[in-house]
Amino acid sequence: MTTALLVIDVQNDFCPGGLLAVNEGNAVVPVINRMQDDFPLVVATQDWHPANHSSFAANHDDAEPFSTIDMTYGPQVLWPIHCVQGSEGAAFHPDLALDRVSLIVRKGTDPALDSYSAFFENDRETVTGLAGYLRDKGVTSLTLAGLATDFCVGWSALDARRLGFEVTLATTACRAIDLDGSLDAAMANMVESGVVITS
Q: Structural domain tally of the chain?
């Protein structure tokens, strides 16, 4: 086994009608379902926040969603409440095929620390354990899909490259938030790091 599909955060709150909906977020579901048969290993991630998470604007006095504050680990976007542990919004999209998913990595569980990447918390030091799992399986190459291109998918792609994996981004299987030019910045960073962009 040398390759795996990494499915990032295809959850109800990131799809139309969700608390942090990504435009056309549900459109990635049938694409990802078709892609899974092309990979010997499929891994998924799931945002899994406690209700008191520090990345929620509602947990800061007078803070507006999508504003930015400085945390101990650097700048942090304050989000609307989303993907609260055990909620319907945190569940995977009901049409997402999960029967071939061998591992689900839950992230963002520490109330003091956000986690975009599938590999590291936002302090860039705390690991999720995914890299070790993939290496134990003999994986050297990853294809990434899911939500959102410019945050959790992009950070995961950059970290995968930093960890030595070959990385492909499947653009038709991703959608972006595009917050103040974040999509263009993320795409540029991924290309610079050696991520292969494909449809």
A: 1
